[in-house]
Amino acid sequence: MTPRLITALSVLLWILSVPLACLSGPVQISAPEVLRLLGVALGLTPDAQAEPVQLLIVSHIRLSRAVLALCCGGGLALAGTALQGVLRNPLADPFILGISAGAACGASLAIALGGSLGLAASFLPGGLIAPAALLGAILALAAALALGYGAGNFGRENVILAGVAVSTFLGALVALIKALNEESVSSIVFWIMGSFQGRGWDSFVLLAIPLLTGMLLVAAHWRELDVLGLGDDQAAQLGMHVGRARLALLFGASCMTAGAVAVACIVGFVGLVVPHVLRLLMGAAHGPLLAASWFTGGALLCWADMLARSLLDGGRELPVGVVTALLGGPCFALLIWRGGNTGKPEP
Fold first, then answer.
1. Which of 129, 67, 66, 11 has the alpha carbon at shortest distance from 309?
2. How far lies 299's CA from each of 29, 57, 256, 319, in Å?
3. Which of 57, 216, 265, 306 fits a disulfide with 24 by CB distance 3.0 to 4.6 angstroms?
């Protein structure tokens, strides 16, 4: 299939995911009624006969979760595409700079200190946990970039090593928090597994700014991704400031990841598998690859959230991070086993 056809199919799947996601949930609503309520919510049809409870479920619960999943999944896939291009490593993912560990540390502190910080939480949308996760992710990013700045340039080896160091240290802090506050262990573990449960339109306050910032930075430097694939020396000979371009792309990818983590908690494999598969199908040109990654990643996370809501009965939900791991892990292992890519960094 050509890149244009793959992109068109991903756009179609992305669009179809919205009404299908609004069908999924413990409350049974017929498909025609869901479509009619979506029209009411979007202002396309009159609401004279709309049932208030059903309209609330479709427009404020299911539709908001679907849109959040589409945006978070798209952001993670875009971040993975950018990071794999910047670091020239097909195994790079959005959490390579310690962003997930920073978010987990911030959320764990907020959960453990929730009782003493209740007043502050009342002034923040969605409580204190999501803003604390966003702050932790940003601070972890700043630490990794500061450590990765060696010899006046952002070398890809330095960045990877800095991310490993930051992740290890913050992971130890999360373990310490759980050991010192056993009452919060279950909440911390559930948060780390990822979920859209309880998220609504107010969560866009946390997602929109870092997501848009990251998208603009990556979109402004997508051509540099193709040049960086030639190697640092060749890119410099073509007149590119390699360190500056790498910093902008790393910061953009990390901003998108931080916003997604603050809303959806830690969701793995979307930013690793989607760019990897699309690169095998479409080639290494980052223009169409970035576009297809946004739509495919969003659709994947939206469908994973549908499964998380539907597999258990009685209104119970699986963590969406567990679903993406169960889907993405075997898929990625199969790709490596079939020899689609060795997974080794390029020289």
1. 66
2. 22, 21, 17, 17
3. 306
Q: Which residues of 59-97 are buried (b: 16+ CB within 10 A; e: fewer)?
A: bebbbbbbbbbbbbbbbbbbbbbbbbbbbbbbbbbbbbb
How confident is the model over 298-327, as pLDDT tens digits?
Answer: 999 999 999 988 887 777 888 898 899 888
Q: Quick one: tokens of 269?
A: 């494999």
Q: Read off φ and ψ for residue 154, nearest 5 degrees.
A: -95, 85
CA atoms within 13 A on the CB side of 24: 22
Domains (ranges, CATH) in the chain? 3-337 (1.10.3470.10)
Tell me how far apart the alpha carbons of residues 85 and 105 are, in angstroms, rounded to a whole number.
Answer: 28
**Paired tokens of 153:** 């340039």
159-198 burial code (b ≥16 CB/10 A, e <16): bbebbeebbeebeebbeebbeebeebeebbeebbbbbbee
Token pair in block for residue 196: 């859209």
How far is Cα 238 from Cα 241, in angstroms, rounded to an integer?
A: 9
What is the distance between the alpha carbons of residues 316 and 143, in angstroms, rounded to a whole number?
38
The CA distances from residue 131 to 28, 95, 139, in Å, are 33, 18, 12
Residues 211-246 have pLDDT tens digits of 999 999 999 988 888 888 777 778 778 778 887 888
Q: Which amino acid is at 196?
A: F
Instruction: Count the Cβ atoms, other than its own, within 10 Å of residue 27.
Output: 11
Q: Which residue has the tokens 């756009």?
A: 11
pTM: 0.86
SS (H, E, C) 32-63: HHHHHHHHHHCCCCCCCCCCHHHHHHHHHHHH
Q: Residue 232: how many CA atoms within 13 Å on its side-chain side?
A: 15
| CA–CA gap between residue 203 and residue 33 (Å, rounded) | 26
Q: Which residue in 7, 96, 85, 54 sits closest to 299, CA to CA?
A: 7
Q: How far apart are CA 228 and CA 147, in angstroms?
A: 21
Determine the 3-state secondary structure of 316 from DSSP: coil
Give SS3 for 290: helix
